[in-house]
Amino acid sequence: MIPEVSVSFPWQVLAGVSAARRRNLLRQVRESGLHGVTVGDHISFQGGAGFDGLVSAASLLASDDEIPVLVAVYLLALRHPMAVARQVATLSELSPGRLTLGVGVGGDDRAEVANAGVDPSTRGRRTDESLELVRRLLDGEEVTHHGEFFMLDSARVLPAPSPGVPVVVGGKGRAAVRRTAALGDGWIGIFCSARRFGETRSSILEESARIGREAPPTWFGASVWCGIDRDPAVAEASLGGEMESLYKLPYDKFRHIAPAGNPEHVAGWLAPFVAAGAAHLTLVPAGPSPEASVDAVAEVARILRA
After folding, report:
1. Which pLDDT does position 192 carry in this prediction?
2. Listed residue (141, 183, 134) closest to 158, CA to CA
3. What is the CATH number of the domain that holds 271?
4. Which of 5, 9, 197, 205 is least surrounded by CB atoms within 10 angstroms?
């Protein structure tokens, strides 16, 4: 299997460069042979950091006529499904076939969830209910729904995206398996080992068969933080600094799931994911500049394709 490799930029990079530099960066991504760009999503993470995933996607899709964008992962439980469906449908109209929506429950920062008006203990159930509604609305269905969290009467979002927007589920554990098997076009693993990735993929396919889903999930990918430099010490220092700044935890907490080293080392670390069925890889690189990060990720992708 030859994986599609995309690059993810921290929100500070997207917000901190000029429009011209952003366009040049996206052209560099395309010309380097990378598949596309991934953006994250947070409302107010660890004291206020964040960057809206769909707004970020809109900026990138409008800055380049070809590049695909993956939102991974959008905190669906913190938004209303009707509004999300309309935003996604609008982006699809503007850039047909170039958007993939990843959804997750969030919760790494419970204050972020609570401050958005959501009881953190309900975020899984809210995500399930919202995801089903978003899927139906994006299919062009007229939806009447009186649920635990949302009420819709004869609701529609038209025109329905054509082609459809793939919706992939993030997360881990039994809940992510069940959610993906029932409602997702695929699954994206975040902060997991290659062994756990392969086990989760198998469990999703088994659960899809058990519930009799006619079109089981086919999109399987992983998002991985990494430090890439010819000097392993520089790679680790860059990665550790980025992750500690964002997550307020020491890099040692992430070392086993966030590789740092030269391109050959990082590619070797990722190879078991590909062997386990990861056809889509997003690398979140820590480097001296976004342009240098694109070059480093492209080198890892070339090694994986060799």
Report:
1. 94
2. 141
3. 3.20.20.30
4. 205
